[in-house]
Design goal:
single chain, about 210 residues, alpha+beta, Beta Polymerase, domain 2, 5-stranded mixed sheet, 6 helices, 7 strands, AbiEii, Nucleotidyl transferase AbiEii/AbiGii toxin family protein
């Protein structure tokens, strides 16, 4: 039950994000896109990975180290301030603010003052007993350093609507969602696992099995 409930909130939040004014500069990517947008894997949704097109920050092509550093800061501040405030406003507009709370990741210190990608946690009011593994939270992770393309337009539905078409769980009108192609997602997962298991980080690979899946 908790997994289905979480998938419902993932679907709602993803749909809301792509109603925001700058949604044409966002791309949905990662493992959740493989299940939600393409049906290539059967995995319950846990989080939402998004990319912001660097052109949104007036940056194009190959970047210098200085430009990359500037992009990290601009992207991080955009997520903390603009994207968070617009998402909160959308929650209010659709009457969801009574059921969930939007909390952006705090600033860090030193070289990590502006985390990038930066996370936004959306805590929702669960209808079921708390589960240690499935927390009543949807995490959005948004960055601007990944390549924006290649993408295709997709649409998503919650597991509830997929299994019971007579139940419409959509809170917004149908929106196409720019989504990274499965081939690109596969390469990103392969690179992530290579980095993880060729370094000391492989010793703390808890909760990484979903990448292998």
């Amino acid at each position: 039950e908790q997994a289905v409930e979480k998938d419902l909130w993932v679907s709602i939040i993803l749909q809301l994000v792509f109603t925001l004014p700058f949604s044409d500069k966002l791309v949905f990517k990662g493992g959740t896109s493989l299940s939600k947008s393409f049906g290539l894997i059967e995995r319950f949704s846990e989080d939402i990975d998004l990319v912001v097109d660097r052109s949104f920050f007036d940056l194009h092509g190959d970047l210098t180290k200085k430009q990359i550093k500037g992009l990290r800061k601009k992207s991080s501040l955009f997520v903390r301030d603009d994207l968070t405030s617009h998402l909160k406003a959308a929650m209010v507009s659709y009457g969801l603010d009574e059921y969930c709370t939007v909390v952006p990741e705090d600033d860090g210190e030193g070289d990590h003052t502006y985390p990038e990608p930066r996370k936004i946690d959306v805590y929702y009011r669960t209808l079921f007993p708390l589960n240690e593994y499935l927390q009543p939270r949807v995490m959005l992770e948004i960055g601007a350093r990944s390549l924006f393309e290649p993408t295709v337009n997709t649409s998503i539905q919650s597991l509830v609507t997929t299994q019971f078409p007579q139940i419409d769980t959509g809170f917004v009108s149908a929106h196409t969602i720019a989504t990274a192609t499965p081939q690109k997602t596969f390469l990103e997962k392969a690179f992530l696992l290579h980095e993880l298991f060729t370094s000391q980080r492989g010793r703390s690979a808890e909760r990484k099995s979903r990448h292998l899946y």
